[in-house]
Amino acid sequence: MAAPSGAASCEDFAEFQELLRVMRTIDDRIVHELNTTIPTASFVGKVDPGVTCKELYESLMDAHTSRERIIKNCISQTSAVVKTLKEEREKADEDAALLKQLRKEQTKLKLMQSELNVEEVVNDRSWKVLS
Fold first, then answer.
1. Coiled-coil annotation: which residues (predicted)?
2. Would residue 117 count as lying in a domain?
3. How many Cβ atoms are within 10 Å of 8's Cβ, its own excluded?
4. pTM for the whole thing?
């Protein structure tokens, strides 16, 4: 199962979450993937389980690496936006719209940071099933 390609949009948190949901499909279906990867006794001569397990392992590693890279990239981008908005807020004392935008970006940043914790749990669960 290949991960979707392309750059993640960090602007819209819902889109960011949807991308991660799609990319986590391999982890969500790990038991199914194992069941279809490891051949039954009747197919053991036709399929090399070592090769198919290695391919599954590599797919899982690629998926985990890609998701972590996307999450950290979005955290970095959003952190930069928050920093810029904080600097602008210091210059403009009572700009309600700016304050509202800052709070929105700070909330988005916290949610993205929490995705790193979710990612760790998802990864651990997959590796426990695989080992």
1. 75-105
2. yes
3. 19
4. 0.81
What is the structure's pLDDT at 130? 79
Reported as half-sphere exposure (CB side, CA atoms, 13 A), residue 81 has a value of: 19
Report how many domains make up the chain. 1
Q: What single letter denotes the amino acid at residue 114?
A: S
For the record, the structure tokens of 113 come out as 């940071």
Which of these, 74, 72, 75, 54, lies nearest to 64 by C-alpha position? 72
E strands along 60-115, which residues?
none
What tokens does 126 get? 């997959």
Question: How far apart, in whole angstroms, are the C-alpha atoms of residue 131 and residue 127?
Answer: 6
Give the residue from 11, 9, 7, 8 showing the smallest Cα distance to 104.
11
pLDDT tens-digit profile of 56-76? Answer: 889 999 999 999 999 999 999
In a domain, 7, yes or no: no
Q: How far apart are CA 106 and CA 72, in angstroms?
A: 15
Range(s) of the domain holding residue 124: 13-35+46-128
Residue 20 lies in a domain: yes
The answer to which of 13-17, 50-54, 80-84, 119-123 has the lowest mean pLDDT is 50-54
